[in-house]
Amino acid sequence: MKLFRNRKIKERTLPEHIAIIMDGNGRWAKKRSLPRSAGHAAGAKTFKTIARYCNKIGLKYLTVYAFSTENWKRPPEEVDGIMNLLRDYLKDAENFKQENIRVKFIGDPAPLADDIKQLMKKDEDGSADATGLKLNIAINYGGRDELVRAVRQIAGEELSPDEITEDEIAHRLYTAGMPDPDFIIRPSGEYRLSNFLLWQSAYAEYWFSDVLWPDFKPRHLEQAIDDYNRRSRRFGGV
Prior knowledge:
Elements: E1 2-4, E2 12-14, E3 17-21, H1 25-31, H2 36-57, E4 61-68, H3 76-92, H4 94-98, E5 102-106, H5 114-126, E6 134-141, H6 143-156, H7 166-170, E7 183-186, E8 205-208, H8 218-229
Parallel strand pairs: 3-4, 3-7, 4-6, 5-6, 7-8
Antiparallel strand pairs: 1-2
Helix pairs in contact: 1-2, 2-3, 3-5
């Protein structure tokens, strides 16, 4: 874990892996009598700001929940708007590459449009050599869907029951090879995981805030990390 300084705490521990459920875009727009698409656009800007800030302070891994397997249930025009925002981000992702951020997409890409899948592959390949923040963007991702996918792989490989271990399951998840998140942040006043990183979050610390995602600033992230440093992580021990 990396140590860094700020004005309030002379020295503190930075989590190795932070995961964020980016929630509250629609309510942010509603409060301002704006269409939900405006909230998603504002949320996309916040995402870029927070990702760059995480890279600046030396975070190793950041995973953000951008679009869930359940989000397809939203009105078609809202889904289309989110996908267009995704296209804009993917075309702009060259800037992240220049900032030494490595981009990876987790989730099932199959239902996505071909041009989006091509842009995703281009961004992953183009940033593969980056050594800074490892940024995971969860698109068409669901924790249960991920576990079903892992179980199907194991069934197809015909492992014996004794061969099925936690490591074997973890090896077949989208996050294989990454540390589990130490810290999960959810703004917007909701207190649930919403099918996000169900396996990986077994021992994560949680931080909830009433701040809607488009209003989430680096100072809120700093508050969350300060709180993380006041906790005692025992992993079932004493």
